[in-house]
Amino acid sequence: MATFTTIIGDSFPVSATLMGQDLTGWKFACTVKKNKDQADASAVLTVGPRDVTAGEITASKFTHVFTAAQTKVVPAGEYYIDMQFTIPASSVDALPAGGMLSTPADTVEFSKDVTIRETA
Fold this sequence. Notes:
Elements: E1 3-7, E2 12-17, E3 27-33, E4 45-51, H1 54-59, E5 61-66, H2 68-71, E6 77-87, E7 99-102, E8 106-111
Parallel strand pairs: 1-8
Antiparallel strand pairs: 2-5, 3-4, 3-6, 6-7, 6-8
């Protein structure tokens, strides 16, 4: 489990690399939430589920960047990052069609920016 730090109002990238795995047909979702038991629907940041892109298939890597506008409304504090992968039947023999993998929960600390910009 890793802990990341970012500033509220800055973009925040999340990614996961699955080396040697054909990601064709996979779906990717990610939530950022205050506690592990919180429902995905009430997460402070969320994406997906969405189809993987051709570039992600080639790289065997899922990537999403939460924008500065999205993180601007996140209250300061520590949050859990949960990446979820929905897998087609032919990808992983151990999972049934539509099976889902979920990453161990990394954490991110959202901090307030020390610099306060004023406009004239």
